[in-house]
Amino acid sequence: MVLRSPQDALYALVSDWPVNGGVHQQRAIDFCRAWLAGRMPAETVRQAFILAALEAGVTINDDEDGAEASALNPAV
């Protein structure tokens, strides 16, 4: 799955996440929703998503060079 924005991350965290109920998962969901409301910078959401992925054992490929990535890029 390629995630290009906090909105993509929110969908993944709510719909496709392999482990539900994690502390970091819920925090990342909250941060994604705050980003949608204009109250959270994308980079902060990205870091929260990475922690949630680590918590769930989800492998991420964080490629910030603009190529395809399976983690969030901060530019939105």
TrEMBL record:
Superkingdom of the organism of origin: Bacteria
The name this protein goes by in its record: DUF982 domain-containing protein
Species of the source: Rhizobium leguminosarum
